[in-house]
Specification:
Elements (H helix, E strand, L loop, with lengths): L5 H7 L6 E3 L2 E3 L6 E5 L6 E6 L3 H16 L8 H17 L1 H12 L3 H22 L6 E3 L5 E9 L2 E5 L5 H14 L3 E5 L6 H12 L7 E3 L4 H10 L5 E5 L2 H13 L4 E5 L5 E4 L6 H13 L11 E5 H14 L21 H16 L3 E4 L3 E2 L7 E2 L2 E4 L6 H4 L6 E7 L2 H9 L3 E2 L1 E5 L3 H10 L4 E4 L14 E2 L16 E9 L2
Parallel strand pairs: 7-8, 7-10, 8-9, 10-11, 12-13, 12-20, 13-18, 17-18, 20-21
Antiparallel strand pairs: 1-2, 3-4, 5-6, 6-23, 14-17, 15-16, 19-22
Length: 495
């Protein structure tokens, strides 16, 4: 158990909210800032640059200059690897500072910022560092009269726009492959969670990344984000966020230079439990832990829990019994399991969905109320609905809060039909002791990842992304290089 007084450290913290452009901390071109408050208790953390088109242009021009003079792209892969390895080491060395910034920024428990977010960020950077000199180019089998070389080249300037729920991890998923491939990056973090992105840029410079290769401009999506996505010198956008904004990214690409857009968007993941799975207590514990982790602010949260009718009521009682274990607490307390929602807007959104569930006839088995109102922060009890059907609002729309709905089904075919009747297709889970059924259902589910008899087990070596309106392309694994590289064919005639 940590002996650090996180409350005292938080009181002493003075985060720097200025942009990082071309290796320097800089104020906004027009001097604009916004106040950043912590969702823990609504305390003011500091002033952050409110980036506009001029700030984005400055960052993109720095990134373009760095790419064109090949100060990074021109380094041998082994040299890029060493710099990124040092970057990973710097992240781990700053673990406590980064974890505190992450918790203060978006409200997650400090124990998970320390144990999950920082190590996962460092692991991602280190893994892509190791991968950079392990990827070989190709020679096509064209015959004796020609030599056809197929080579990967960096795209150029990558715009990365990341959300507030896992600010460091989502940034690393873009930065790792983009930087390893030799690109320059301009990162726009969410205005709700800017501080760790800005600190990561400083750590990268300390590790030896040349100025201009990794730039960070904070600000609002409709200002800095839009300017980045519309910029004619940005070659690709890696975006993680809502489906609504993902649509805008495609529109911005069409209105500008037809830049590549890779969207990782929302989810409404189905967690399917059959009555032939013996240990339903374990399934109930797993879905509660996965759903309430990170306050339910996860795109892959298993918010639609499909349970075979014969065990649906028992399963609902088991999950409801798990909910009190995740009672909201002070995120700076190392024993807290469930922290604060990111801001008041998200709190109102989640409470609105809970009200909609009640209005449509679903039964509240646990939770359903705002919590810790005396703190000034934004907390919601972990909430379990039973008697849900797939046409209800809480079953169709992404809530992004600690709210799950239990839907009863009859047959295997019905379970598959309900699970697939969603505009999303990010993840799913199948629970069955019948291996044939597990394989059948896993193959039938339209989702980027299907877990069997577990949920949320994960590794940087496997791709992450979804079907349908959950996005395109894949983060993580070697497949992520496809998003940030161009394939070039060089055809040489042999006489």
């Amino acid at each position: 158990m940590s002996t650090i007084d996180w409350t005292q450290r938080a009181a002493e913290l003075r985060p720097d909210g200025r942009s990082v452009i071309d290796g320097q901390r800089v104020a906004a071109q027009d001097g604009q800032t916004f106040d950043k408050h912590s969702p823990i208790d609504n305390r003011r953390l500091g002033a952050v640059v409110r980036g506009q088109a001029a700030d984005v242009d400055l960052a993109v021009r720095a990134a373009r200059a760095a790419f064109e003079d090949r100060r990074w792209a021109g380094k041998p892969p082994a040299q890029r690897k060493r710099v990124l390895q040092r970057f990973s080491e710097k992240i781990l060395a700053a673990k406590e500072e980064l974890a505190l910034l992450e918790t203060l920024d978006m409200g997650k428990p400090i124990q998970y910022s320390l144990a999950v977010d920082v190590p996962s960020t460092a692991r991602c950077i280190a893994w892509y560092a190791e991968a950079v000199d392990k990827i070989y180019d190709e020679i096509a089998p064209t015959g004796d009269s020609a030599l056809a070389l197929i080579t990967r080249e960096p795209m150029g300037v990558i715009g990365a726009i990341v959300p507030w729920n896992y600010p460091m991890i989502m940034a690393a998923w873009k930065l790792g492959p983009a930087l390893a491939a030799g690109n320059s990056v301009v990162l726009k973090p969410s205005e709700k969670s800017p501080y760790t992105a800005l600190r990561l840029a400083e750590l990268a410079l300390e590790a030896g990344l040349p100025p201009g290769v990794f730039n960070v401009v904070p600000g609002y999506g409709h200002e800095a984000g839009e300017a980045l996505a519309l910029h004619m010198e940005v070659d690709a956008i890696g975006f993680t966020g809502s489906t609504r904004v993902g649509r805008r990214m495609l529109d911005y690409a069409g209105r500008s230079n037809l830049k590549r857009v890779y969207n990782e968007l929302g989810g409404k993941s189905a967690f399917v439990v059959f009555d032939d799975f013996a240990d339903i207590q374990r399934a109930a514990r797993t879905v509660a832990g996965s759903m309430f982790f990170n306050q339910g602010e996860s795109c892959n949260a298993p918010s639609r829990v499909l349970v075979q009718a014969g065990i649906a009521e028992e399963f609902a009682r088991l999950v409801a019994a798990e909910a009190p274990k995740y009672a909201p607490g002070d995120p700076l307390n190392p024993t807290t399991e469930l922290g604060a929602l990111v801001d008041e807007t998200q709190l109102k959104t989640v409470m609105g969905y809970i009200d909609a569930g009640r209005d449509e006839g679903a039964r509240v088995m646990a939770g359903g109320r705002q919590a810790r109102t005396e703190t000034g922060g934004f907390y919601v009890e972990p909430t379990v609905f039973a008697g849900v059907n797939n046409d209800m609002k809480i079953a169709r729309e992404e809530i992004f809060g600690p709210v799950m709905g239990i839907i009863a089904f009859g047959t295997e075919a019905e379970a598959i039909a309900i699970a697939n009747r969603s505009s999303y297709g990010l993840q799913a889970s199948v629970w069955s002791d019948n291996i044939n059924r597990a394989h059948r259902v896993a193959r039938a589910l339209r989702a980027g990842t299907v877990h069997v008899n577990q949920y949320d087990e994960d590794d940087i070596t496997v791709p992450f992304g979804g079907y349908k309106q959950s996005g395109n392309g894949r983060d993580k694994s070697l497949h992520a290089f496809d998003k940030y590289t161009e394939l070039k064919t060089t055809w040489i005639r042999i006489d």
